[in-house]
Amino acid sequence: MSVRPTIAGFALPLALLLSLVVLWPSQSLGQGVHHPFAVGANEGAVASAQGVMGWILAKESGFYRLLSGAIRTAKLNGGAPWGLIALSLGYGIFHAAGPGHGKAVIASYMLANERALRRGLVIAFGAALLQGFTAVAIVGISAIVFQAAAARMTAAANVVEIVSYAGITVLGAVLVTVKGAALLAARRVAPSAVDYAGAGVAGNFRADDCTEDHLHGPGCSHFHAPDPLTLGAGFSWKSAALTMLAAGARPCSGAILVLVFALAQGIFSAGIFAVLAMSLGTAITTAALASTAVFAKNTAVKYATPGSRRSLMAGRLFEFAAASAVLGLGITLLLAVLAGGTGAS
Amino acid sequence: MLFVGISAGAAAAHPHVWVTARAQVVFNTQGQIEAIRNAWVFDEMYSAFATQGIGKDGQLLSKDELAPLAKTNVESLEEFDYFTYAKAASQKIEFGAPADYSLEQRQDKLVVLRFTLPLKTPTSATRAFSFQVYDPTYFVAFEMEKDNPVSLAGAPKGCSINVLGSNPLAASDTKKLSESFFSGLSPGTDFGVKLASRIIVACP
User: Fold this and answer.
1) Of B49, B109, B194, which has the smallest distance from its Cβ to A150's Cβ?
2) A58/B183 CB distance under 8 A
3) B58 at interface of A, judged by CB pairs closer than 8 A
4) Contacts of residue A1, Cβ cutoff 8 Å, sequence gap at least 6
5) Other Cβ atoms within 10 Å of A188 Cβ, number
């Protein structure tokens, strides 16, 4: 599919952007990050750590603390760092199980759009891998190429974070526009006449909004094509790529720390393996979540008599709510990071 | 469930930095508490991160080389109340600007941040003085040093220190966590405070 070129198309601008940030003469770029010990992106926020989340948190912390030991062992042994990789995988699984915007974006996107599970899985894996690659790129470019200090690395990660949150906001806005139009169309049009061409009228009507950010053309309505296999690959994959980007661009502090530590130990490659294993772990959990989203949605839609007006409205409402959630999340995160706030008062 | 996840998404953190903390309670000549001196040892991953790109390879960094970073750290700590929360007779204690701050890289490459936090108004310790060191955002997990976590400097005779509850995720917490399995996912006590030791200084 066209996933590969999309990621490659992202990698080059990212590398350029990072180089620019690292070389930028002023420190002002890092001002969004206010936490005194911020690592890369701004992750500090008040944790509500009870129940399942508390358990996940504890597990994740446990794995993470073992990682530094595993990196040192990998250095001593010199061989393949299997222990490190296994630990990283476990960390990734628990890391993704904790609350975080990446999962929320993917789940909401799946609720708003996808009925095809396979594509959802690709999105989940793409986002997780992208997250790993971003961390490697940030540390690789700033630490190895430019020998930048931690503050610069954090500034670079912060810029990527802002871009990522802006991406979530754009994705949310696009989804809300498209889903809102579809919802209105479903309300207006008589049940018998509501087919996917009906939604298409609304889509065409809004073609101006859609083309504005180059996300899609008049093919907006293809979201609602009845058979996923006949979906226009172009539009769908573009929005899927945006989802991957928005959910996955933001590097994880843990990955950056592991990479810098591995670099300090002189075994950067082991760090890369660890981060890729983390991504894989994250992907497994996110994929499970994406599957749940698709299943929940299909069930909800099926609950009403298939093909009925109620079923259609249920589906559209569901999608619109999910789309609004993505937009709300994007705006919240963007405002928080621009204000330099961390949720702590 | 997914929407709960979304709303919680923005408000979740997990520690990426571990600090082993030591504190010293400083008394003035009138026998009042006038400052708290913090010494925070960072875990090896964060230590490697903080010193990345500073100084020459393979050599320990000097305090001078680390001075700019120490300044940045301490300045940005202001917004977070220096992660130091003190009370005297149930009243919140206000701190002034920190003095004598420094970062050093130990022989084992771990980085230590030291700073003295003066009380805006020195206070007597005859009425329950207590403090906690923690990050409310739980990005940094603070843990008091096992041996001699707190010491007194210039204290009047008979003053004592008590350190309460310093074990992260004690068995009782884990049990509570599993009990709240179904009622979970609701905002509640946060880990930063929950796991923080409370240090009580009592003077006759």
Assistant:
1) B49
2) no
3) no
4) A122, A233, A237
5) 11
